[in-house]
Design brief:
With 117 residues, the protein is an all-alpha fold. It has a domain at 1-29 and 51-81. The chain has four helices and no strands. It has helices at residues 2-26, 33-37, 51-83, 90-96.
Length: 117
Amino acid sequence: MQQTLMTVVLLLQVISALTMIGLVLVQHGKGADMGASFGTGASGSLFGATGSANFLSRSTAVAATIFFVATLALAYFGNLRGASTQGASILEQAASAPAAASAPVVPASGAALIPSK
């Protein structure tokens, strides 16, 4: 159950991060309105002259809030998983875990590494 919930929170975090990136890239800077005041740009768009700034900035704030809540939830679940290993550090867990694949044995002398002619 905890693994499923952690996967859902991680998915929510990734989606909110991508949404935040897209919203920030869609927004225009404060200097972009200068061109519109001289008639070189279209100041009225889909959301109106100032409506897009409010909508996009609020949407970015919502996505950022979801991102940070998901980050805190992942940190909490990660801490719970660490507590289930009875306080062993990552190095202690790695030392006690059996090796999954054995590495090939290399002789101490470099004689086997030099190809013979």
